[in-house]
Every structure is written in structure tokens, then in C-alpha cells.
Amino acid sequence: MICQTIRTGTDCVFMKNKGCDFKDGACKTIIEKCEGCGRIIDLETGRYCKVYMDPASRWLMGNCVTATHVKLEIKEAAQKINPLKASKRASRAKKKK
């Protein structure tokens, strides 16, 4: 349904015939960690997230999953080497010389 409370005119899954069904009856504004994200909408009543009704709850366990301004660092796992095989390879390399 179309929101009739804070984000008027936008589609909202929490909007029911009785009003907003979200906790406290309204969406929450963004927090400081959300600044710079591409999913922020500016309305007359404040700045809100397009995806989540309570953006602060998305940052409790680390980074927000949908944050566009946060770059994830992918660490390459070091390949585990069996010490026995490594010593055999080293001894074979010595014999070839």
C-alpha cells in the first residue's frame, strides 16, 4: 500500500488499512553510518532508507548488507601446505641439482 504517515506517496509493505504496522507506527531516520549510501531518500520529514524501515538495526552486527558506500575487503586464504610433502619436494629439488 501507499504510505500515509512519513514517507507519503511511496510504496510500503507495513502500511495497512489501520495505519502503519511498523513498530512505533513510523519509519526511523537514517543514522550517521548511513551517510553516503545511494539508497537514501530525502523527504520533507527527514532522510530515510529506501530498503529498511529501521536502518540502525542493520548496523548492529557489523556493516549494513545493502550499503553502497561500504567496500568489502576480500582476503585471500593462504594455501595450506602439508609439511611432509613440502620436505619431500625440497629434497627432490636438491637431488636434481
Describe the structure.
With 97 residues, the chain is an alpha+beta fold. The protein has one domain (1-70). It is 19% helix and 12% strand. The protein contains two helices and four strands, in the order ββββαα. It has a two-stranded antiparallel ribbon. Strand 1 (15-16) and strand 2 (19-20) form a beta hairpin. 11% of the residues are buried. The model has no long low-confidence stretch (mean pLDDT 81).
Query: Biggest β-sheet: count, sense, barrel?
Result: 2 strands, antiparallel
In which order are the strands of the major sheet placed? 1-2
Helicity, as a percent range: 10-25%
Order of helices and strands: EEEEHH
| Cα Rg | 26 Å
Low-confidence runs of at least 5 consecutive residues: none
User: Please, how many domains?
Assistant: 1
- The backbone outline, from C-alpha atoms, is rod-shaped
- Please indicate the percent range of residues in DSSP E strands (runs of 2 or more): 5-15%
Through-space gap between termini: 78 Å
- Overall average residue pLDDT: 81
Number of helices: 2
Per DSSP E runs of 2 or more residues, the count of β-strands stands at 4
* Secondary structural class: alpha+beta
